[in-house]
Amino acid sequence: MALKKIVIGLPKNMNNTEGQRVEASRRYGASLEKRLQIPIVFHDERLTTMQAERMLVEEGNVSRKKRKQVIDMLAAVMILQKLFRFKWKSIKRKRKENDRTFTSRTRS
Question: What distance separates the 2 farthest-apart alpha carbons in the chain?
Fold first, then answer.
């Protein structure tokens, strides 16, 4: 299976503005896209690290050292889940619109 897209998290500020870290992420994405010839998708990553840490703390059996080792991976998984949910909702919305269009055409 070939890689079709790369997802890069955008570390936006809490007020949705973009700072230096977002600019650096966009430059990195542009560099990767140029080098690998694979489309880059950027996705808002606000609060994912906090959510991941909270999840690991609530789990209760993960030491602080182990949390540091896995927190970024877990945050990346959360970013992908958010992106997939967004894409899935978009697909479902389009299907409903297509169904309505088809139904109205068949009734006419």
Answer: 66
